[in-house]
């Protein structure tokens, strides 16, 4: 039966009709459509094409909405927007290419397999509210971290590297070592220059610089300072301090030496100085001509003046108003208040031309040299031995207790005239 036109009524499903066109203002429902669909046109927008079974289209051009529970396409070309509603997975055996980007609102991006994920342009990892971003700038070959965006290393964030907008920080966790290893010289330089600030060479020195000039250098025996060394606190030296080609040691405080200060060589105009109130009060009182040290003022001694090279020969001040002369560790002469003590073992040798003037007091004399003249203004000379003289002055009228007529007595001499 050839169906040319139906104006009213219903096409029965149990009767076959042969026709070229079906023009319907309602819904055309069939259990099966046969054909490639190439002749379909003017499918009404908003009504569309609704299939409940499996439909095979060799070429399907959809301008409106394509909605289906299950669809399989060998090749799909979409000029507009492809929207996946309630879709959990998009499975592709090839490459998924997006011309304007891929947006994932939730759920994250998971890449499985052993391949390499390649980003051929700039990449940004966005922080909260657009802050604390991390950007990869491909054309500049750099990764940028915004302010207060930290690069943390270690399972427990043991090392952090960041900038807070003002200051740069490299922060290590408490109790962890910070090791910088290098097989060659490690250098800290002024930005944009070759001016050294700190250098550290393996098995060699560590150097510190000021404005490009080396000021401190470690050596195999200690350290070397070029320039002035200022210590505002105590400076403890266990070894020897050696001054090479040094003219001055300038201190605003007190220099204390536990065992003395030794000056090996003095030159003219250069003498030891001690500040006000100390033993040597004023350097203006001292002169030095290259051989002799002169003292223009008072010299205060607390204990001894010792002969250089002979420690047992000295002039000592053992007590108040007392000084003692000792040679070869033997006391020779002691002055104490108004007394002069000469030990018995001391020999006093007075040259012949020397005169000794005795004050008005009693003087005891021992054996004397006959060639020496002894004068005294005293009234008495007490002697327990023999007094020998070339000449006696006076008439002897005041002599008493002179007895005997022997050749050794004054009476015998007077008798002889």
Summarize the structure.
The protein is an all-beta fold. The protein is built from one helix and 22 strands.
Tell me what you see in this structure.
By secondary structure, the chain is mostly beta strands. The chain is about 0% helix and about 20% strand. A hairpin with a 4-residue loop joins strand 12 and strand 13 (about 295). The longest helix has 6 residues, at about 410-415. The radius of gyration is 62 Å and the shape is rod-shaped. The relative contact order is 0.02.
What's the layout of helices and strands?
Layout lengths: L122 E3 L8 E4 L4 E4 L5 E3 L5 E5 L4 E5 L13 E4 L6 E5 L5 E5 L2 E6 L4 E3 L60 E3 L4 E3 L8 E4 L2 E7 L5 E6 L2 E7 L2 E3 L14 E3 L4 E2 L9 E3 L4 E2 L27 H6 L2
- Number of separate helices: 1
Low-confidence stretches are 275-282, 360-364, 366-378
Strand order of the largest sheet: 7-8-9-10-11
Number of strands: 22
Q: H/E element string? A: EEEEEEEEEEEEEEEEEEEEEEH
| Beta-strand share of residues | 15-25%
**Helical/strand content category:** mainly beta
Assign an overall shape. Answer: rod-shaped
How far do the termini sit from each other? 211 Å
Task: Let me know the average pLDDT.
Answer: 74
Task: Report the helical percentage.
Answer: under 10%
Main sheet summary: 5 strands, antiparallel
**Global Rg:** 62 Å
């Amino acid at each position: 039966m050839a169906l040319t036109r139906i104006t009213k009524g219903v096409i029965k499903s149990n009767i076959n009709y042969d026709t070229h066109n079906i023009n319907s203002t309602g819904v055309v429902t069939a259990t099966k459509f046969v054909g490639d669909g190439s002749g379909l046109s003017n499918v009404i927008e908003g009504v569309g094409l609704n299939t409940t079974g499996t439909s095979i289209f060799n070429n399907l051009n959809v301008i409106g909405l394509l909605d289906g529970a299950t669809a399989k396409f060998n090749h799909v070309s979409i000029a507009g927007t492809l929207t996946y509603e309630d879709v959990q997975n998009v499975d592709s055996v090839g490459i998924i290419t997006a011309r304007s980007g891929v947006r994932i609102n939730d759920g994250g991006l998971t890449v499985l397999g052993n391949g390499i994920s390649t980003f051929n342009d700039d990449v940004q990892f966005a922080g909260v509210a657009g802050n604390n971003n991390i950007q990869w700038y491909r054309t500049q070959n750099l990764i940028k971290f915004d302010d207060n965006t930290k690069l943390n290393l270690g399972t427990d964030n043991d090392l952090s590297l960041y900038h807070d907008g003002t200051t740069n920080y490299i922060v290590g966790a408490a109790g962890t070592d910070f090791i910088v290893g290098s097989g060659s010289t490690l250098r800290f330089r002024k930005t944009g220059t070759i001016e050294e600030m700190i250098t550290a060479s393996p098995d060699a020195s560590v150097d510190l610089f000021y404005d490009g000039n080396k000021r401190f250098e470690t050596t195999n025996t200690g350290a070397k300072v070029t320039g002035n060394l200022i210590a505002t606190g105590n400076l403890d030296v266990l070894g020897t301090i050696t001054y090479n080609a040094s003219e001055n040691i300038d201190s605003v405080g007190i220099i204390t030496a536990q065992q003395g200060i030794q000056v090996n060589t003095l030159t003219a105009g250069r003498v030891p100085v001690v500040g006000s109130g100390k033993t040597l009060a004023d350097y203006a009182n001292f002169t030095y001509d290259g051989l002799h040290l002169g003292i223009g003022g008072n010299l205060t001694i607390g204990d001894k003046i010792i002969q250089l090279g002979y420690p047992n020969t000295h002039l000592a001040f053992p007590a108040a108003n007392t000084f003692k002369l000792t040679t070869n560790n033997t006391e020779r002469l002691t002055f104490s208040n108004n007394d002069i003590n000469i030990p018995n073992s001391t020999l006093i040798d007075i040259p012949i031309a020397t005169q000794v003037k005795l004050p008005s007091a009693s003087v005891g004399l021992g054996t004397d040299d006959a060639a020496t003249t002894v004068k005294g203004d005293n009234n008495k000379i007490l002697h327990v031995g023999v007094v020998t003289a070339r000449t006696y002055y006076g008439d002897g009228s005041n002599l008493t207790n002179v007895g005997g007529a022997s050749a050794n007595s004054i009476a015998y001499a007077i008798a002889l005239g």
